[in-house]
Amino acid sequence: MKILITGGAGFIGSNLAHLLIGRGHSVLNIDKLTYAGNLSSLAAIENHPNYRFAQADICDAAAMKALFAEFKPDGVMHLAAESHVDRSIDGPGEFIQTNITGTYVLLDAALTYWQNLPEASDEGGLIADSQANHSSAIAHPSSPTKSGFRFLHVSTDEVYGSLGETGLFTETTPYDPHSPYSASKASSDHLVRAWGDTFGLPILITNCSNNYGPYQFPEKLIPVVILKALAGEPIPVYGAGENIRDWLYVEDHAEALLTVLETGKAGETYNVGGNNEMKNIDLIKLLCTILDELVPPGSQPSLISHHSSIKSYRDLITFVKDRPGHDLRYAIDASKIKNDLGWEPKQDPQSGFKKTVQWYLDHKDWTQNILSGDYQLGRQGVID
Predict the structure, then answer these.
(1) Chain centroid to CA 101
(2) Residue 10 lies inside a defined structural domain of this protein
């Protein structure tokens, strides 16, 4: 397929682009290259004949319509978003602009493009009806057709709000966002559904749990813990570390997104989770244990400094003031995507987190390039 990705220089998007190119698809990657966009994450595929990059803002209506008309995609995978809760507390406006207005602009461009596609015919190839047969991937003719096109909007489980000690988010859980970030994503979800219901655009939505893995910008919990530990600096834990998240390995998520695009039923929502609930404090302790095993404190002076007084990276754990409006627990019921589409995560807690720690150890140049700029692992989103 010819797939247009937005936000493909970001964390999830870059992993997805690698997967799509590896599977033989053609990719147009549209990214504004904000602070979280990193073309070095795409170095391995940047010269591939099936890969193209366009630096553009999804809020630029003329640019979006021109790129649709030129590339003629079979499908869209919309990942471009401001996504860090702490940053949404400091500056909500960027989240409103990108996540809501940007999604509207992209939907408008996609709708115009889709409405002008030809209807399907038997000439040029077969289009499998994925709505009737979920086991069959879409086989497209050389030119896109109206019935073969789909628009996949990638969202978050944070739109559902916070759970108590029991229960799981399902695709029918009422929306209850608590941060500017989650509110902006909830708004974008509603827009996508409206374009499906009102205009007939063949949309799909996924709501995922917390991602982790290679190429994650070091402002999120897991890379912060790893990099703070290796630098011998205090590892910050919000509140008492009792908040619970379901952790999804990013490469598993990329597989889920491709599965939904290929075989999901138009108009449907699919929750994507890692079956991997952990308290933040337990996750941080696990990461410290993995680091203790792979790079014991003080064992590599060229990499690690200031560890003469600690026996374990756990000694660096420091409790700090909690995030305002911090949701207690997220947990995904991913049974629908498993039962309907046959997807489930491959990584378990031990394998996924160990792979992630090792990746950051093996890619010090990638992280140091980011940390040489304005961002220095400092906390954001603090309200006194």
Answers:
(1) 19
(2) yes
340 is an active site residue: no
Q: From CA 107, how far away is CA 153, in angstroms rounded?
A: 10
Which residue among 181, 212, 215, 313 is the active-site one?
181
Query: How many domains are contained in the chain?
Result: 1
β-strands 235-238, 150-156 pairing: unpaired
The verdict on residue 297 lying in a domain is: no
> d(Cα 254, Cα 230) in Å, to the nearest integer?
28
Place of tokens 């628009």: 151
Residue 165 appears among annotated catalytic residues? no
Q: Is position 157 annotated as part of the catalytic site? A: yes
Q: Considering the domain boundaries, does residue 373 fall inside one?
A: no
Please state, in angstroms and rounded to a whole number, the distance separating the CA atoms of residues 52 and 32: 14
Which H or E run includes 230?
helix 221-230
Distance from the first to the final alpha carbon of the chain:
50
pLDDT in tens, the chain (384 residues): 999 999 999 999 999 999 999 999 999 999 999 988 899 999 999 999 999 999 999 999 999 999 999 999 999 999 999 987 888 888 999 999 999 999 999 999 999 999 999 998 644 333 334 443 333 333 344 689 999 999 999 999 999 999 988 999 999 999 999 999 999 999 999 999 999 999 999 999 999 999 999 999 887 899 999 999 988 889 999 899 999 999 999 999 999 999 999 999 999 999 999 999 999 999 999 999 999 999 998 775 644 555 557 889 999 999 998 767 677 899 999 999 999 999 999 998 789 999 999 999 999 889 888 776 554 455 455 544
Between strands 277-279 and 244-249, the pairing is: antiparallel
Q: How far is CA 364 from the centre of its chain?
A: 22
Q: Which domain holds residue 114?
A: 2-217+248-276+330-346
> Against a cut of 0.85, is the pTM above it?
yes
From CA 264, how far away is CA 77, in angstroms rounded? Answer: 13
Which of these is catalytic: 74, 158, 268, 327? 158
Q: What are phi and psi of 9, to 5 degrees?
A: -100, 0
Catalytic hit among 31, 157, 246, 255 = 157
242 lies in a domain? no
Decide the pairing of beta strands 203-208 and 150-156.
parallel
Q: The domain that contains 81 carries what CATH number?
A: 3.40.50.720
